[in-house]
Amino acid sequence: MTNLAVIGVGDLADYTISGIRRGGWEGDIRLSPRNADMAADLASRCDCVVAESNQAAVDGAEIVMLAVRPAKVEEAMGSITLTSDQTLLSCAAGVSMERLAAAATASGHDGRVVRAMPVNCARDGLSPTIIYPGDEDIMEFFRHCGPVYSAKDEAEFNAGTTLACVYGWFFALYGRIARHAESFGLDPDTARSMTLAMAAGAATRAANAEGKSLKLLTEGIANEGTFTKRGLDLFEERDSLAGWEEAMDLLMDKLRDT
Fold this sequence. Notes:
Layout: E1 3-7, H1 11-22, E2 28-31, H2 36-46, E3 49-50, H3 54-58, E4 63-66, H4 73-77, E5 87-90, H5 97-106, E6 113-117, E7 129-132, H6 136-142, E8 148-150, H7 154-183, H8 188-208, H9 214-221, H10 227-238, H11 242-256
Parallel strand pairs: 1-2, 1-4, 2-3, 4-5, 5-6, 7-8
Antiparallel strand pairs: 6-7
Helix pairs in contact: 1-2, 7-8, 7-11
């Protein structure tokens, strides 16, 4: 695919387009004109064109990326007419295929509809993006900004979406750990840098330890009598990690209802 139209130019459009350009995607990109300042800035940085209207953006595009807030999906779809050979790519969080299909049909579209959930490390070429259904053209598109995962059904896509939310929680976790390390007297910049380096190191070690479960990797480090084990024992005694599971359950229940 060589032409992309983007309806809704906000943060998601910014980091996704920045990421695919960084990853070498060379297709033409036309942006919807709303949010004019951001669209103009993105166009200047990422070799895009700001169209005169939403319809002008989508005319002739092979991929039409819907990057609006969930509440704006029907309004955005009502502003455009698509042809059957265009792929509607929705990055609107929590908007089901059923709802997308209804909005697409209302605008005269009977072609492919695909959901995707990139996160903002797409800008760095690191977004783990889940896709449903597993359209190869769309998967290849997102490989320019990180690893891609194909969901077998919408339930699995929603499960992947919860992990996209967990991604955002990591920042809060790392921030709290770094601030507490500061309270022990560690230099703030060092606390931040070491916390992030430890997180990145753990993720890399786990990713490179193929065939080993995360539980086994934890047990391999947290041996009896170690400081690591003492900390984990406290987490388990207080069931401190259960809150993460409860928050994920809350999101999954909400996604099932959309």
